[in-house]
Amino acid sequence: MEKTARFPHLRQDFAASLVVFLVALPLCVGVAVASGVPAELGLVTGIVGGIVTGLMRGSSLQVSGPAAGLTVLVFEAVQNFGLATLGVLVLGAGVLQLAMGLLKLGRWFRAISVSVVEGMLAGIGLVLIAGQLYAAAGLKAPAAGLDKITHLPGALAGALTSSTALVSLAVGAGTVAVMVGWNHLPRRFRAVPGALAAVLLATVASLVLSLPVATVEVRGLLDSIQPPGAGAFGQLASLSLLGTVLAFTLIASAESLFSAAAVDRMHDGPRTRYDQELVAQGAGNTVCGLLGALPMTAVIVRSSANVQAGARTKASRVMHGVWLLLFAALLPGALALIPLPALAGILVHAGWKLIPLRSFVPLWREHRGEAVILVVTALAIVTVNMFEGVLIGLALSVAKTAWTASHVKLEVIDKGAGPVQAHLSGNATFLRLPKILDSLESLPQDRPVELNLSGLHHLDHACRTALENWAERHSTSGTEPVRMTAVGEGDPPELRTGSSQD
């Protein structure tokens, strides 16, 4: 009775933790292999995400671990800087997240345009799918994202002439088919997560049929952990490395906090405290960096599985980390049986889910500018790189917001006799200045004009100066000077309400 009173939701949290563990296990391994690091490092990040981040405040039901959304960036970082430097990158990102959380900047991530985030995930998904199709065929993928896509048809055509590559592709395709079809099975079968079922079936098939497919290389948990050395910290003087740290920080933070907002919509429990969640993510990434492991984010797949399995408190995510630790300690050899094409199939499926196909058509119909930002961000990530692609998306978002905020309307009333009345309303900024001047300069030159500015919410310096210059040009001999009704009391005398130049 006492234990029940102290842990009233222990039964629900225990059951949910097993479900999340079964979902997380193949994803941790798959993300690590796709990132070009030992499979055990994916488990290390999952363990830290469960036990360290899971114990901290923030979002009570959100589950953290290695995420497909960072796979492309981590792979590029390992290729450019080496595995020994990965810990420094992740540690730097963790420290920055801690600082931002303590400075209460977490809530500001909610101000990032959803189109930029979705475009980022779509770009990652496209590069991830292309890269994992090579892995499914047992081929080495090109380094650049655009090369992965453009060289793919030739690579797959060549694979069709190799029996070994065909078998490998068949295992990967079968894995994807199982995951897609798993949700259509009766509910009693769906008690086992689709990703785990797909990996188990692929593993059994490869063993029973003695298929010639590559399997996961196992080093052992302790052998895979490589704390960063002094030499790796020396690379922090490199601008490219600092840029990668910043990219890790921004992308991991944005993905985690957007995931938190999505998880909050799934349950009626306590809401996410964004600054504290950012501190929790920073603490987890700091520990992962010290262990030389993968960076972590909150992962929507695991988090939604946690909520749907009936979790009530953060105990479920902590226990899922314990189960990952026990598996890594007691059954490390089981990883060596997993076919690499099966993990590639899981990540192809994960990459496909990163692309917001269902929401794109409504977005295009209702907010075409946001849809353009999404597409441009995704294409920039594919053709340039992750960090610069996100910066391009953010710049477009800011530019669109500025353009939208500078909406201005000019209404002209001409009764045929007397002064022409022109009313400006909205926000008059330099972005709309050409349109304003074109309309004003088309007014009759031989008629007096009354320009009413009282409907403006904002009038910047460029517009104010341009309007004064236009008024001087319009006021020719024989024509009454332009009469202006001002925006506010702080305007100069020539723009104040009711003043004129008689």
UniProtKB/TrEMBL annotation:
GO cellular component: membrane
Tagged with keyword Transmembrane: yes
InterPro entries to which the protein is assigned, alphabetical: SLC26A/SulP_dom, SLC26A/SulP_fam
Residue spans crossing the bilayer: 14-34, 41-61, 81-103, 115-135, 155-182, 194-216, 236-263, 322-352, 372-399
Keywords: Membrane, Transmembrane, Transmembrane helix
GO process annotations (BP): transmembrane transport
Chain segments carrying region Disordered: 472-502
Family annotation (PANTHER family): SULFATE TRANSPORTER
Protein name: SulP family inorganic anion transporter
Lineage: Bacteria, Bacillati, Actinomycetota, Actinomycetes, Kitasatosporales
